[in-house]
Amino acid sequence: MKITFAYWGNYTIAFISLFQKLGINVIPPEKTNQQSIIEGAKISPEMYCFPLKANIGNYLTAIKKGADTVFMVTSLSGSCRLRYYGIIQDKVLSEAGYKVNFVILNQNFIDIYQKLKKISGASFWQIVKAVYFFFKKLHLIEKLEKKAQYLRPREKIKGQTDQILRETFPQLEKVRNLRELTKLKREIKKKISEIEIDSKKNVPRIGIIGEIFTVTDGAINFGIEEKLGKQDIEVHREMDVTYHLKKIICPWKDWQIQKKINPYLKSTVGGHGRDAIFEMLNYTKNNFDGIIHLLPFGCMPEVVIRPILEKIHQETGIPFLSLSLDEQVAEAGINTRLEAFVDVVKNHYNNKNH
Amino acid sequence: MKCYLGIDVGSVSTNLVLIDKENNVLFSLYIRTEGDPISAIKKGLKLLKEKIPENAEVVGVGTTGSARQLAGVITGADLIKNEITAHARGVAHFIPDVKTIIEIGGQDSKIIILENGVVVDFGLNLLCAAGTGSFLDAQSFRLKIPIQEFGKLALSSKQPTIISSRCTVFAESDMIHKQQIGHKTEDIVAGLCQGLARNFLANIAKGKNIKPPIVFEGGVSENLGMRKAFEEALKEKVIIPKYNTVMGAFGAALLVKEMSPQKSKFFGFGVIDKDIKCTSFQCKGCPNQCEVIEARIDGKVMARWGDRCGKWSNLNMNNI
């Protein structure tokens, strides 16, 4: 059995190592690119939300390399279309003539544990060790991403941070055990400390909010964080895998968020709809200079809350840009909007400080 | 005399504006791009060269429009700026207290909201061309009415008919239907203008805080019918500024003047006779598979862009 799964930004590296540690034969998905998106969109239902098409594109590249089983994590209790992803993807692939085995994992630790145990045949200890290693890698990836958001606008040689990240992630993918990981961590630390930065530089800050898949995967959002960083903007983003997992473990977080957003929205709309409103309010309170809202085309929760976000933008005057991404969107259009938005943000920032 | 040149290369028109130190327009030009931005830029520069005052010296070049990158590379621009900032800067020069700018060009349309002469919000058309100049162009062609007379004809209508304008194709079938049941041409033309204004306000300007003074510019602002349609739909006076069709280029010239480059990178008018070619290729270096564009002047690589990692765009051009 050779398994594959959907590509998800840099986090893919952590997922690969999780399955490898369990002794499962993994064919990692290739990084999403325009070609794979087109291939995926070709056989997917036209009106389905965009991540599904991107996922199918990932599976196709892996199936070509011999993968015969797909792991798909869905949220069976959620109220957005992610709920049906596994079933629809299975149907789409089989109707297109691909014979693959679909393993649908619910976002529920017991379900994931049982299915992983059954498939891999690993012992309890092995699973614990693999999960531990997965989290170690995941934390490193998330920490690097956060660090890069701070470094990009301040680095003296433009593009140096991204150069280091591009070298680091493939190395991280090859790391197989904790000792190697510690060694690599030390190397990364050394490399990053060598980046010359202007730490006193004042830079405008933009908060990125929206649907988790589009905000975290640079291959989907055209590397928005890099682009903003190059234009001297510090980017902040709450959404990542850890954030999502924490919310599954601590469901009361949702109640806390609901309490804060009550004047705008009184119930859940599915996905991370409430979180986006909460984050925007938070960023506004913390005196940020702009908000970028990213959503995949056809994402119900984000479409529902977009007017609310626009209302907050009208009320507070914080610059706001909403970008809907799908296979039809051209990078040139996104660039024009981003450039113009950066000008708006910089004006806002300068007016505020003078 | 020191002059600054602004070049706006859009999908339909290419505009050049030359200004002096006191922001006076010495030369302005509006020509069709005709799908070939390189030739359009060359042609524009050639016409400028013929008209340029003898003592004028170009000390700064700014480019804007959808082909700003390309125009910047082949002319040696000091500033490459997005359309929104350029248009806002240009309009704010003529009408300093402007609050709303409606700009409709060939392939795109935008709304810009300003406060104290600074852009605070903007919107661009996303999905469809049914709100742009191309839409009117296509319909005027179908009705066999020259686009220049389109507006005047619309004004003569007393009873504009309602034409669905959600989509260019549906508008056309609706228009055919209206013709066949016997509506007058001028009513249909006026209906089209109203539909376009309605579509603009419903899609692009949705959720935006539209306050007077409202400025209408871009190629479509030449159309009298459209001016009237916007005034009726907004119930506000719509101002048409001077140089309304070349505002982007004017804004770019102003912006480059404000930047006041020490030494301009402008290549001069020599590029008119040079052989400029653009090619693209797909980089196979990583799974990103970026499309890299390469501009050559007389066979010499001037610039490459389009890659995410900087592998191509950072190459030292002198070593090739």
Describe the structure in your own words.
Chain A has helices spanning 12-21, 34-43, 50-64, 85-95, 109-120, 124-151, 160-174, 178-193, 212-216, 224-230, 241-249, 252-261, 273-285, 300-316, 331-353; strands at 2-5, 25-26, 69-74, 101-106, 205-210, 234-237, 290-296, 320-325. Chain A folds into 2 domains: 2-131, 3-Layer(aba) Sandwich (Rossmann fold), CATH 3.40.50; 201-353, Rossmann fold, CATH 3.40.50. With 354 residues, chain A is an alpha/beta fold. Chain A has a 4-stranded parallel β-sheet with strand order 2-1-3-4, sandwiched between helices. Chain A has a 4-stranded parallel β-sheet with strand order 6-5-7-8, with helices on both faces. The relative contact order of chain A is 0.11. The radius of gyration of chain A is 21 Å and the shape is globular. The model of chain A has no long low-confidence stretch (mean pLDDT 90). Chain B is α/β, with parallel strands linked by helices and 320 residues long. Chain B has 3 domains: 2-88 and 248-273, Nucleotidyltransferase, domain 5 (2-Layer Sandwich); 97-240, 2-Layer Sandwich (Nucleotidyltransferase, domain 5); 276-319, no CATH class. Chain B contains 9 helices and 13 strands. In chain B, helix 4 (133-143) runs antiparallel to helix 7 (185-203). Chain B is globular and about 60 Å long. Chain A binds chain B through residues 30-35, 159, 162-163, 166, 219, 223, 226, 307, 310, 313-314, 317, 319-320, 324, 332-333, 336-337, 339-341, 343-344, 347-348, 351, and chain B through 66, 81-85, 118-122, 124, 126, 207, 209, 286-289, 308-310, 314.
